[in-house]
Design brief:
Radius of gyration: 31 Å
Catalytic activity: adenylyl-molybdopterin + molybdate = Mo-molybdopterin + AMP + H(+)
Number of domains: 4
CATH architecture of the largest domain: 3-Layer(aba) Sandwich
Helix content: 10-25%
CATH class of the largest domain: Alpha Beta
Oligomer: single chain
Largest sheet: 6 strands, mixed
Number of helices: 7
Keywords: Magnesium, Metal-binding, Molybdenum, Molybdenum cofactor biosynthesis, Transferase
Structural class: alpha/beta
GO molecular function, one term: molybdopterin molybdotransferase activity
Number of strands: 27
Distance between the termini: 44 Å
Pfam families: MoCF_biosynth, MoeA_C, MoeA_N
Protein name: Molybdopterin molybdenumtransferase
CATH superfamily of the largest domain: MoaB/Mog-like domain
Shape: elongated
């Protein structure tokens, strides 16, 4: 009997993302908004600058008066936050400082370096040009203008813009609530004095880190032993905890001790996929606990091998969480063009994500070299890698210098 076909990586990702429902919106203050995804556009609450202001220290003048060699009387001063109350008179000037309102009557600014002052008079050493050195009202943005669109993830620069729009809070998607559930009799937490036959739990740190980078709130749901009833109890508790995504690690294959899939099914989960044409990470599954409408809790079952778990989290969990927050443009693999630094053999039927080093650049294009060992248990090589070198299914042999694709690892 022929083995069932493995699902292609991109097909599995499309299927997973098609099930993602955008989380409800909430309003947060700006100091809690960094990295959050806008659920509604940001509309400016004011015009900036609110008036014409000076871009330099100097003098506000009428350009027709400020010709080369002219002498003008200084009528007063305008500083940031303290505008000159009157109008620049004919033959006059008003002392200005950067950011100060340009008084009525003036249509140019002569910078300080292009004048010489004698008491209450200035000598014009370079003729004024209308509009020069003036920041026009509304030159940055105007009241009612949309400055950021819904679906945008807020950066530090964005927060400055929102604040300048006279807005103290923004409407964003709620953070996804992610629970991490580990399985395996061999697992011991770091710092507990593990024996030689035991394995130190590391997946929750890498997978949890990927989830947090995508904007999620992450909780550790503990380690389950390789016992069906204990596995079901742990899954049942996670199901009832109000999670948006339950991520399991280990027990996703078909061995005698791989209990996660049957335990999930016994607790009411619907599993959509179990095997992916992926290396590392073939034993991957996803589905969900059904709710009254749509998916109540998404389930992503990752392999136990730490490199496989990390790669699968990067490929599937990260975009899922971003899509759930309504982030714009999420879909498909976000690959970057690169160039091979070494020859590569032909690939088989699985899509390969090889740990690789970026060893240089040619015309701005990264030069990549795969690590000599690709064992999915070796974290030291993953920590050294700067990218995952992608080899498509059935890719032919390639020579050094030929183009390739990478998934950068930018923590």
């Amino acid at each position: 009997m022929a083995k069932p076909a493995l699902m292609p990586v991109e097909e599995a990702l499309d299927l997973l993302l098609s099930q993602a429902e955008t989380l409800p919106a909430e309003t947060v203050p700006l100091d809690a908004a960094l990295g959050r995804v806008l659920a509604a556009p940001v509309v400016a609450g004011r015009t900036t600058p609110g008036r014409d202001v000076s871009a330099m220290d100097g003098y506000a003048v009428r350009a027709g008066d400020a010709t080369l060699g002219a002498v003008l009387e200084v009528a007063g001063e305008s500083a940031a936050g303290r505008p000159y109350p009157g109008t620049v008179p004919p033959g006059g000037a008003v002392r200005l400082f950067t950011g100060a309102v340009v008084p009525d009557g003036a249509d140019a600014v002569v910078i300080q370096e292009d004048t010489s002052r004698d008491g209450a008079r200035i000598h014009i050493n370079e003729a004024a040009t209308p509009g020069r050195h003036i920041r026009k009202a509304g030159g940055d943005f105007r009241q009612g203008e949309t400055v950021l669109k819904a679906g945008h993830r807020l950066t530090a620069r964005d927060l400055a813009l929102v604040a300048a729009c006279d807005l103290a809070q923004v409407e964003v998607s709620r953070r996804p609530r992610v629970g991490l559930l580990s399985t395996g009799d061999e697992l011991v937490r770091p710092g507990m004095g593990a024996q030689a036959h035991q394995v130190i739990l590391s997946n929750i740190y890498a997978v949890g880190g990927v989830a947090r980078q995508a904007g999620a709130e992450v909780t550790d749901r503990g380690i389950l032993p390789d016992q069906m009833e204990a596995t079901r109890e742990g899954i049942r508790a996670a199901r009832d905890a109000g999670l948006d995504v339950l991520v399991t690690s280990g027990g996703a294959s078909v061995g005698d001790h791989d209990l996660v899939a049957p335990a999930l099914t016994a607790e009411g989960a619907a599993l959509a996929v179990h095997k992916i044409a992926l290396r590392p990470g073939k034993p991957l599954m996803f589905g969900g606990f059904p709710a009254a409408q749509g998916i109540g809790t998404h389930i992503l079952g990752l392999p136990g091998n730490p490199v496989s778990a990390y790669v699968c989290a990067l490929l599937f969990l990260h975009p899922l969480l971003r899509r759930m927050q309504g982030e714009a443009g999420i879909g498909g693999l976000e690959l970057v063009a690169a160039e091979l630094a070494v020859d590569m053999k032909a690939n088989d039927h699985r899509m390969d994500f090889m740990r690789a080093e970026i060893v240089g650049r040619r015309a701005g294009i990264p030069l990549v070299r795969p690590m000599p060992v690709q064992d999915s248990s070796m974290l030291s090589l993953l920590a050294r890698a700067g990218a995952l070198l992608v080899r498509r299914p059935h890719a032919t042999a390639a020579k050094a210098g030929e183009p390739c694709e990478i998934l950068p690892l930018e923590d």
